[in-house]
Amino acid sequence: QIMQNVLPFRPHPLLAEEKIRRQSLRGIAVNLSEQIMQPRSVTVFQGESAPAFVAPAPENNLPRMRDPEEDLLCIAKTFSYLRESGWYWGSITASEAKQHLQKMPEGTFLVRDSTHPSYLFTLSVKTNRGPTNVRIEYADSKFRLDSNCLSKPRILAFPDVVSLIQHYVTSCTTENKNEAPYPPASVHHLIRPLGRKDSAPSLQHLCRLQINKSTAEVDQLPLPRRMGDYLKQYPFQL
């Protein structure tokens, strides 16, 4: 004890070295733990590709089921328009249509029932080579002229047959015939419909055609409701 009080305490050099070594090791351990806790970025080297994530197909891309009632309503509306037109000849044959059109001017046409089981209607028209026939196809609640598979996507489709016929008649009588892309050659000659001889158009129907030619906004006319409903039953010019 006397020696401890007189002489100052000097740590043994080996003990001091051991303490320094422990502190160094403790510091290294702390640094390693901090590095482990820190997030590290992942580098994708060239030549490696991360697996592509393929999202599940949404339900909206699934094919929509056709509603039979929608088709029935569309076809029923077309039949109603055709009966009002006066140039729908029903279930006559191709030879009968040829007889009716043979002596008519070029561009005269009529619509009849198709004798082919896969089609509903057929357009018969008088061309410079004589009467010819073009089937009218129905698919997805739309009507279009029958054509080959290559040009079919470019053929216009319409909600009813009268709208189809009126479009091609209008495009044939205007200077710009490019409005009807890729129709059959015979459709370039649609000019006037051939009315049925056994059912002459009424005076009311003729007035309705003239009103439709004068304006497309029938709702804006100051007419009684009953007369406005009559005009809407056949909103065409043919």
UniProtKB/TrEMBL annotation:
Q: Which CDD domains match?
A: SH2_CIS
Q: Name one GO biological process term.
A: intracellular signal transduction
**Source superkingdom:** Eukaryota
Q: Which gene encodes it?
A: CISH
Keywords of this protein's UniProt record, alphabetized? Growth regulation, SH2 domain, Signal transduction inhibitor, Ubl conjugation pathway
Domain SOCS box intervals: 189-237
PROSITE patterns in alphabetical order: SH2 (PS50001), SOCS (PS50225)
Q: In which pathway does it act?
A: Protein modification; protein ubiquitination
State the coiled-coil residue ranges.
none
**Gene3D superfamilies given for it?**
SH2 domain, SOCS box
SH2 domain mapped to chain residues: 87-194
Question: Can you name this protein?
Answer: Cytokine-inducible SH2-containing protein
Mind listing the GO molecular function terms for this protein? Answer: 1-phosphatidylinositol-3-kinase regulator activity
GO CC field? phosphatidylinositol 3-kinase complex; plasma membrane
